[in-house]
Design a protein that fits this description.
alpha/beta, Rossmann fold, 12 strands, about 45% helix, binds nicotinamide-adenine-dinucleotide, NAD, dTDP-glucose 4,6-dehydratase activity
């Protein structure tokens, strides 16, 4: 393992990115980790208060679509590796504002690729561009079958189309310019610090506040769920041990129909909040389906398991318990993100003068 590696992690103030930043900063004291994030509504430095001030870590506020800024940053810092997570990530938002997704997910990724290419042109030894992507690029499955790394792309939402586009650009830069890259496509993540627009934290928040739980359609949509720390560990492994030009699918071997997941969450929350069993379930409210809604996603994660030895370590029950515990013990975090107050945190921490 080389020392003094300079790693850029984009989107490190977001949900998954913050877990990846924490893992790398704590596990690799010899590396220098730069977290670059625009701090959109989804980016929150409160996710990382525990590693602020560590000597191997720094945060930079900036937009990955800003050509001059990214070019200057890459020239100055001479990164060895990029772990690229910055993205617009919420499917519902992509339906109302697709261009925001094209801008960050496609233009932003190409801008980072260009900066990597021009910096590494003479020497790509030990360098790596790692794109973090989603299983949603593969489209939808019927009742059986799994997405493998060979499944053809078939995205259905503006979000998944933008992630598919960025995956294609990364692969094309590998072919055309010999840029060393890896890609991983992961299923739905859950865990601490997830913005409460996504299903699990939204429903925890609504159950706490006795608000309706909006379930799309008949609730039969099926997703595979993975605890976010397991994903961060897979990212560490792929970054260090994955083979250039390869894709790795990452999943939890853990499929749930939405309605069953919501019922399980209600049961766990009733126990935790000392409510009568069945009380939270009364909040379930079936709502009009999302357009282009994919019926089922399921990941075949055998390649990363066989080639890199990765398996998820946290069971769904444990992961949900940890997640619920975290949200119940961090009411301020929830208040701040739902009120937008975490923006003030940035100003307090980083713009005191
Ligand atoms: P998130 O929305 O929580 O975080 C995204 C981060 O990117 C935020 O901190 C935001 O401020 C930052 N960002 C957005 N636009 C930016 C820009 N123009 N410049 C710089 N920073 C910008 O997302 P997440 O759920 O943590 O997802 C991270 C990555 O993982 C995404 O690429 C997503 O597609 C992928 N992914 C997510 C899941 C999931 O279940 N959440 C599953 C598979 C893959």
């Amino acid at each position: 393992q080389s020392t003094n590696k300079k790693i850029l992690i984009t989107g490190g103030a977001g949900f998954i990115g913050s877990h990846v930043v924490r893992l790398f900063v704590n596990k690799y004291p010899d590396y220098h980790i730069t977290n670059l994030d625009a701090l959109t509504y989804a980016g929150n430095l409160e996710n990382l208060y525990d590693i602020e001030g560590k000597p191997n870590y720094n945060f930079i506020k900036g937009d990955i679509t800003d050509v001059a800024f990214i070019d200057e940053l890459f020239k100055r810092e001479q990164f060895d590796g990029i772990i690229h997570l910055a993205a617009e990530s919420h499917v519902d938002r992509s339906i109302t504002d697709p261009l925001a997704f094209v801008r960050t997910n496609i233009l932003g990724t190409v801008n980072l690729l260009n900066a990597s290419k021009s910096n590494w042109q003479n020497n790509t030894q030990g360098k790596r561009f790692y794109h973090i992507s989603t299983d949603e690029v593969y489209g939808s499955l019927g009742d059986s079958g799994y997405f493998t790394e060979k499944t053809a792309y078939d995205p259905n939402s503006p979000y998944s189309a933008s992630k598919a586009g960025s995956d294609h650009f990364v692969r094309a830069y590998g072919e055309t310019y010999k840029l060393p890259f890896v890609i991983s496509n992961c299923s739905n993540n859950y865990g601490p610090c997830q913005f409460p627009e996504k299903l699990i934290p939204l429903f925890i928040h609504n159950i706490i506040n006795n608000e309706p739980l909006p379930v799309y359609g008949d609730g039969n949509y099926t997703r595979d769920w993975l605890y976010v720390v397991d994903h961060a560990e897979a990212i560490d492994l792929v970054f260090h041990k994955g083979e250039n030009t390869q894709t790795y699918n990452i999943g939890g071997f853990n499929e749930w129909k939405n309605i069953d997941l919501v019922r399980l969450l209600c049961t766990l929350m009733d126990e935790r909040l000392n409510r009568n069993q069945g009380e939270s379930e009364k909040l379930i409210n079936f709502v009009k389906d999302r357009p282009g809604h994919d019926l089922r996603y399921a990941i075949d994660a055998n390649k990363i398991h066989k080639e890199l030895g990765w398996s998820p370590t946290v069971t769904f029950e444990e992961g949900l318990e940890k997640t619920i515990d975290w949200y119940l013990s961090n009411p301020k975090w929830l208040d701040h993100v739902t009120s937008g107050a975490y923006q003030d945190y940035y100003i307090k921490q980083y713009q005191q003068d």
